[in-house]
Structure formats: C-alpha cells, structure tokens
Amino acid sequence: MLFRSRWMLPENKEKIENFQTDVAEKELWASVLDRTIEEIYWVGGEPLMYDIHWKIMNYLVISGHSKNVVVRYNTNLSRENYQNNNLFQLLSNFKRVNMCCSMDATGSVAEYIRHGLNWDKWLELFKKGIPLNDKYGMDAMVIDVTLTLPGMLDMKNLIDLAVELGRSEEHTSE
C-alpha cells in the first residue's frame, strides 16, 4: 500500500487510492508476472499488513522467480503469518533480504511509545528472523532505530540489545 490516512481530504484520498490500484499495483503485478522484477522495497504504512505483499511474495516463491529477486523492508514487524504464509519461510527463498525493523526503545518504554506493542512478542519475532543473517549477511535482519524523545532515554538499552543480538548471531554461525 502506498499511502493511507484517515485525515486526508476525501477527494485526495480517492485519487491516491485510484492511482494505487489502477497504476501502481498493476505495474507491480505486471513486472512480477513477466519476471522482470529484480528488487522490491516494501515500505509505507506497514507492508506486512497488506494483502498484496503476501500475494506477491507467495507468487514469487511458487513461480521460482524469488531466487532472482532482492527484497528490502522498512517494517514495524507487526506480523509473521498471514493466510498460511510464514514471513521467514518466504524470505528464505529470495536472492537477498534486508529487513529494517523499526524500534524506538526496549521493554516498557517501547510499549509506552508504540501503543499496543507487546515488547516480548516483538523481540521474540525479531529473534526468529536472525537466522536470515546466516544466509544473507549481517544486514538481513536489523533494528532500525527510530529516534523519539522518550526513546532517547532508553537508547543505551536498545544499543546493548543490538550488540547482544549481534554477538549471539556470531556464535550461531560458527
């Protein structure tokens, strides 16, 4: 999904939604179906929440073209499974993967900043993706630090976590 907002003027929202479905999504599907797509950068809103993301990724894997496609994400890592598709199983079929997972802080500070976030579940999900680093390199699964004032108060903990996860990754790939 390219753009969504509940605060947008209705006439502008309609124009953007029409462009999205009539132009952008059609062009994306055309390049997927004719196998000319080489890279997809999933960004905007939350790509893991959009049906088109899962349909395209699944199609690329089933068609065998995924081995020729680089996928990059900017995500809040809100979902692992969708309609019998598992994110990490899909990603293991691609030429290259880079998942930048947005996070402002750790623990209760992260939960305060990101209303509705369950820190323990987010961290568990992030850790499930770390094995992608064995296949694709250390930038396959990364924490993409989002700076906020409350998050800056917890920055040391976020950096310590990243270092800890990086060290645990080094030990698993030996």
Largest sheet data: 4 strands, parallel
SS-based class: alpha/beta
Number of helices: 8
Tell me, what's the shape?
Answer: globular
Please give the order of strands in the largest beta sheet: 1-2-5-6
Radius of gyration: 17 Å
| Helix fraction by DSSP (H/I, runs of at least 4) | 40-55%
N- and C-termini, Cα separation: 39 Å
Instruction: Summarize the helix and strand pattern as letters.
Output: HEHEEEHEHHHEHH
Number of strands: 6
Work out the strand percent. Answer: 15-25%
**Uncertain residue ranges:** none
- Roughly what is the average pLDDT, rounded to an integer? 90
Annotate the secondary structure layout.
Elements: H1 10-33, E1 39-42, H2 51-63, E2 70-75, E3 81-82, E4 85-86, H3 87-91, E5 96-103, H4 107-113, H5 119-129, H6 132-136, E6 141-145, H7 149-152, H8 155-172
Parallel strand pairs: 1-2, 2-5, 5-6
Antiparallel strand pairs: 3-4
